User: Fold these one by one.
Assistant:
Number 1:
Amino acid sequence: MNTLPSLRQQHARVTTAYLRAERHILEHEIRPRISREIIDEHRRCPVGKHSDALERVLIYLRKHHLEMDGKYILVCTQPHVEWRIAQITGEPDQAPRLLDDTFSDRFQAEHALFMKRLRDNGLLDTIEVTQ
């Protein structure tokens, strides 16, 4: 007689399927969109209306992919004066870890965050990047 998988086994299967789909999206939908033009578009306009290609990349990069620990966020440490990139700890009662980079312009901070996410996902490997 067949038995149903345990809830833990079911959760593991769902997680595996989700992560496999996310890897497929990264390799077949996101990576082909990464270009010098997309990076330049984001540098010119990091906040606001974007092309369809850039918007798709941003949505993918902002997702948590089942993991909050280490996710990058932007923190305004001094209103209208200073922004910093931080990483979420994954613990609800702990503040994000501030990274060393400090920015006096929100748009520069947004672009630096975008570049960090691209780099961490291995999406800059084939593109010559100038900051």
Number 2:
Amino acid sequence: MTSRFTELTVDCRDPERLAAFWCEVLGFTVIERSEGKVEIASWEPTVEAISGRSDAAHHALRPGAEGRTVRKNPLHLDVSPIDCSTADER
């Protein structure tokens, strides 16, 4: 199975503000907003595009737990299979 790095998720206090900053810096656009999460990318990540491209991953910025008492990794890396379905990778 071959996979490709497809998404970087960052927990943060203000996803909208951070998305606006990174869109300006990287020339990205907002591709989705849902449940407080903002996703930005330089291209529209579809299954076909992920399989056929080696472009940069898109970024998901989501609200993080404020005042947390347990250490949590604020970054999450996603990889997606490019030569089989997600169900087949299990």
Number 3:
Amino acid sequence: MAQTKWVLDPTHSEVQFKVKHLMITTVTGYFQTFNVEVETDGDAFETASRVEFSADVDSINTNNEQRDTHLKSADFFDSASHAQVLFKGSRYEKTGEGSAKLHGDLTIRGVSKPVTVDVEFGGIVVDPYGQTKAGFTVTGKISRKEFGLTWNAVTEAGSVVVSDDIRLNAEIQLVKQA
């Protein structure tokens, strides 16, 4: 079967992360510049031979310039030395009707670890301009400390300022290439 290439529709996609602050509220951040490319046999995503995601660390936006600057610093992502977050998928495992697990390697700050994220497949449609599009919701959770993002502080009461668990959420729309 012929290989099909799918590329990101950036105007209909978003990538965000959520982290507990002071263990009482959640702060949301976004990567404003990112890319996804997928290759499949035909339109079957379970046959994906290549799934690649990249996000530019300097595009982090948490709606607070001071916090964004701190996240880009050596205390966290160290964007001067590690400009991108990368994910290379190794296996798309269908788990039910419209659901799957995507296994692969995530690289942050030069540290690569295997991760598995949950994928909800929204389907494939042809838009009003004749483009074939596929939609996905991707969710997961990682430990930031496993990737060298270890900065923290302790409050007067003994709580940590930033939790270790980072929740990931992405809404991804892909466009089939001719």
